[in-house]
Design brief:
2 domains, Aldehyde Dehydrogenase, Chain A, domain 1, alpha/beta, disordered C terminus, 18% strand, 476 residues, Aldehyde Dehydrogenase, Chain A, domain 2, single chain, globular, 41% helix, 18 strands, six-stranded mixed sheet
Length: 476
């Protein structure tokens, strides 16, 4: 891999850049403001747009619009709500290519990968379209002499979604269609790094017939987030992102009595036993670790080699990594694109250096990668670090980039304890030909998850991990 000097994104004259607005009360809103963020094409390192940041006044405008629309939308019959969501689903299908290209240009993932993200979002839209069967109440006859009981499911109110950069369409689609189907209204605050997808989603929802104010989008940074969390008109908040921000979201929202779901960091392990098909395990490890440049909540960041197979597994992974084609999202032959920002690239490279200094062995070094014609891009090649141990930053912390660590374990029990002691949890997989080992893996990790949750509560970290559910309790 060739090396290049890292440079900042290429600037453009501000007057030449399009400005990405908010979406409030069924229309784009672009107030006069001097507070903007830069939207950068990660493949080229070029500023392509400015996004207008919301202040408390704009946030209040969006929440008030959602509050005003709540009564009419809540009282609208399901037989009239659902056809709007069905039309929205059809528009998503028709505009998948446009939306995928937009995501690729602002996020840097491959267009096919972006289309897959949209498909996963569509699955939840389809679930929302089945809301009439999911929103039924309950009735119990004669629970006591002359006493019957019944329950009704009613909307919570104005819901807020604060969504991450890594899935700019999928995560919003996991939130607002369910909320809308339940009769709530919604304010979406997407990542300021790739905000275009959310605006297009709002436009398509409006085209589908969604009344003004039912779905609003406010662009911005922590100022907009704080205004949403503190606003008395907001009833519920859902967040996906880093653990420190999840903790902040949870505590600040709960302090004002809001329902809150805050999904934080992840550390996913892939365990390979000596009886496994090593080639199959290596294929899975490379695919899961380096898809979307490792910027996925479910990306495998640690492979655990059990017994004496560590060298064999490392060699098989290295062979596959050497053949991965890294390039811009615009190149259909690319298999892995850039990370989201230059800061993200630098952070990943620093983790590699710290791991090497702590005694880990580099199997594949993706630092300093330069792509001809895209020298300003935020590229890090697929990186594999062997003989990683707990206590190393590269193991203990969420890297969120194209870096796979290999840990050696003597036995399956050692591997299970390793995973159970990690504070992040989220997902784990096992490769083995033994049904008994697979069953033990599942059952033991389930008990570890309960213990981990107890430890989290003891340390007063009020976080929910992604595996504990994705959706707000949007009907009560």
């Amino acid at each position: 891999m060739s090396t290049s000097t890292h440079t900042a994104a290429e600037p453009h004259a501000a007057q030449d850049l399009p400005r990405i607005p908010h979406w409030i009360d069924g229309a784009p809103v672009a107030p006069e403001s001097t507070d903007f963020g830069e939207v950068i094409d990660p493949s080229r390192g070029v500023v392509t747009a400015q996004v207008i940041f919301a202040d408390a006044t704009v946030v209040d405008l969006a929440v008030r619009s959602a509050r005003q629309a709540l009564g009419g939308w809540r009282d609208l019959s399901l037989s009239r709500r659902i056809p709007i969501l069905q039309r929205f689903r059809q528009l998503l299908v028709e505009h998948t290519g446009e939306l995928a290209a937009l995501i690729a240009s602002q996020h840097g993932k491959m267009v096919d990968d972006a289309a897959g993200e949209i498909q996963r979002g569509l699955e939840v839209v389809e679930l929302a379209c089945a809301a009439p069967t999911l929103l039924k109440g309950e009735y119990s006859d004669q629970v006591a002499n002359g006493v019957d009981t019944y329950s009704l499911r009613q909307p919570v109110g104005v819901c807020v979604g604060i969504t991450p950069f890594n899935f700019p369409a999928m995560v919003p689609l996991w939130m607002f269609p369910i909320a809308l189907a339940c009769g709530n209204t919604f304010v979406l605050k997407p990542s300021e790094r790739d905000p275009g997808a959310s605006l297009l989603l709002a436009q398509l929802a409006s085209e589908a017939g969604l009344p003004p104010g039912v779905l609003n989008v406010v662009q911005g940074d922590k100022t907009a987030v704080a205004a949403l969390l503190d606003h008395p008109g907001v009833s519920a908040v859902s967040f996906v992102g880093s653990t420190p921000v999840a903790r902040y979201i949870y505590e600040r929202s709960a302090a004002t009595g809001k329902r809150v779901q805050a999904l934080g960091g992840a550390k996913n392990h892939l365990v390979v036993l000596p009886d496994a098909d090593i080639q199959q395990a290596a294929d899975a490890a490379v695919s899961a670790a380096f898809g979307s440049a490792g910027q996925r909540c479910m990306a495998v960041s640690i492979a655990v080699a059990v017994g004496g197979i560590g060298d064999q597994l490392a060699a098989a992974i290295a062979d596959r990594v050497a053949k991965l084609r890294v390039g811009p999202a615009s190149d259909p032959t690319s298999q892995m694109g850039p990370v989201i920002t230059a800061d993200a690239r630098d952070r990943v490279e620093q983790y590699v250096g710290r791991g090497e200094s702590a005694g880990a062995e580099l199997v594949a070094d993706g630092r300093g990668l330069s792509i001809p014609g895209h020298e300003r891009g935020n590229f890090v090649g697929p990186t594999v670090v062997d003989r990683v141990r707990p206590g190393m930053d590269v193991y203990d912390e969420e890297v969120f980039g194209p870096l796979l660590g290999i840990v050696r374990a003597e036995t399956l029990d050692d591997a299970l304890h390793l995973i159970g002691d990690n504070p992040y949890g989220n997902g784990a997989a096992i490769f083995t030909r033994s049904g008994g080992a697979s069953r033990r893996f599942v059952r033991r990790l389930g008990r570890f998850a309960v213990r981990r949750h107890a430890r989290v509560r003891t340390r007063e970290l009020p976080l929910l991990h992604p595996q504990q559910g994705r959706h707000l309790p949007l009907a009560r």
